[in-house]
Design goal:
By secondary structure, the protein is of the alpha+beta class. The protein has 2 domains: about 170 residues, Cyclophilin (Beta Barrel); about 160 residues, RRM (RNA recognition motif) domain (Alpha-Beta Plaits), CATH 3.30.70. The longest helix is centred in the middle third of the chain and has 23 residues. It has 10 helices and 16 strands.
């Protein structure tokens, strides 16, 4: 009775001691049948000692028997482990001995035993394991794979730096009937059960790309980072935005060329949705480039080929497909919000952020509306600042005393008193 383990470093064929260890072999075969071991990582490899696998968490603390697995899937409870089968004649004498790892009893009363974790010895005569872990099989093919396992680089905890995983398990012969309630999944798992941060099994950390490809990769990552930054500040609607394919960029225009002139010239290629000459934000002067949006991509493509280097208002224009996505952000170009002093369109200066435009307008019109000023706005009237100062503490005390003694004054009296105070201050 055999099982084939397809690992990331090679294949391993295990012959099982079905007659000597029936319960252990049944547990192992049925876990293989439900794809329990698929994509499990070898989480503990000790050179010239053993390679351990079978824990879905890859920590050495997880795993369960097939009967516990069936019960948990059905919403019931069952013991996590089963009693190990120790056979005196089955010892860890030869390289490639397969044993179930025996978990110790826990302080909370959980009984120890065998679950799903197993290991394969990587050397001969490891007598230390006899009587402590239950042997149930031997590797008959794939000893070269064990040599590769023995040479992998590991950290201080024995975990390989580069993941070594069981890619698939194939049962070659199974003499046991399925336990009641066993359900075989319809699909094979495609995602590892643990959250590994190790080097992927199909990744070569020492591989280097040619200089040109490496430079392209660096530029691609830099562009992605820049796009994400522009998305965060509001200049792009989303980082992976693509420029529209039906918009042309026209430059080298004559400053006198108007929107309607370009629209009339380019309209012979198809329906134009919008045509805009971009102008200076402050002066309204033409910046000598424009965006023309066609209804169809085919029309824009035809205009691109036909209008290259055409003479318009004594200037040979340059036509290309637009790389701008400004129109996708709020459906406006860069200066689509209000009119400039010469009739040209001007931008708000906030990248299409209407909330920032409203804030700016609120601050500009707060005083006219009689509303609140900003917290740190300080009056700039120097005379007002100087009048707020007293000439001497004695004068302040005399003024306070006079106020307490004198009756309330009419508004005209207060006006005359303030006038006399200003005249004294000027003298």
């Amino acid at each position: 009775m055999s099982v084939l383990l397809e690992t990331s470093v090679g294949d391993i064929v295990i012959d099982l001691e079905v007659e000597a260890c029936p319960k252990t072999c049944e547990n192992f075969l049925k876990l293989c049948k439900v794809y329990y071991y698929n994509l499990h990582a070898f989480f503990n490899i000790s050179k010239d000692f053993l390679a351990q696998v079978g824990d879905p968490t890859a920590t050495g603390t997880g795993g369960e028997s097939i009967w516990s697995h069936i019960a948990s899937n059905g919403g019931h409870k069952a013991p996590r482990y089963f009693t190990p089968e120790f056979i005196p004649r089955l010892k860890h004498k030869e390289k490639g001995t397969v044993s179930m790892a025996v978990a110790p009893a826990l302080e909370d009363g959980t009984k120890g035993g065998c679950g799903s974790q197993f290991f394969i010895t990587l050397a001969d005569n490891i007598d230390y394991l006899d009587g402590k872990h239950a042997v149930f099989g031997h590797v008959v093919e794939g000893l070269d794979t064990l040599d590769k396992l023995n040479e992998v680089f590991v950290d201080q905890d024995g975990r390989p730096f580069k993941d070594v995983r069981i890619r698939h398990v194939e049962i070659l012969d199974d003499p046991f009937a399925d336990p009641e309630g066993l359900v075989v999944p319809e699909t094979i798992p495609t995602k590892p059960p643990d959250n590994s941060t190790r080097i992927a099994e199909d990744e070569d950390p020492l591989a280097t790309l040619p200089e040109e490809e490496a430079e392209q990769e660096r530029r691609k990552k830099a562009a992605q980072a820049s796009a994400l930054t522009l998305e965060m500040v509001g200049d792009l609607p989303f980082a992976n935005v693509r420029p529209p394919e039906n918009v042309l960029f026209v430059c080298k225009l004559n400053p006198v060329t108007r929107d309607e002139d370009l629209e009339l010239i380019f309209s012979r290629f198809g329906t134009i949705m919008s045509c805009q000459v971009i102008r200076d934000k402050k002066t309204g002067d033409s910046l000598q480039y424009a965006f023309i949006e066609f209804d169809k991509h085919e029309d824009a493509e035809q205009a691109y080929f036909k209008m290259q280097n055409v003479l318009v208002d004594d200037r040979r224009i340059w036509v290309d497909f637009s790389q701008s996505v400004a129109r996708l952000n709020g459906n406006k170009w860069s200066n689509d919000i209000h009119m400039g002093p010469r009739g040209g369109k001007r931008s708000s200066g906030f990248g299409g952020r209407e909330d920032l435009v409203a804030t700016k307008r609120y601050r500009e019109g707060a005083a006219d509306r009689g509303g609140y000023d900003m917290v740190f706005d300080v009056p700039s009237n120097k005379h007002h600042t100087r009048r707020s100062r007293s000439r001497s503490p004695r004068r302040d005390r005399e003024r306070d005393r006079d106020r307490r003694r004198s009756p309330p004054h009419h508004h005209d009296d207060r006006h005359r008193r303030r006038s006399r105070s200003r005249e004294r201050y000027r003298r």
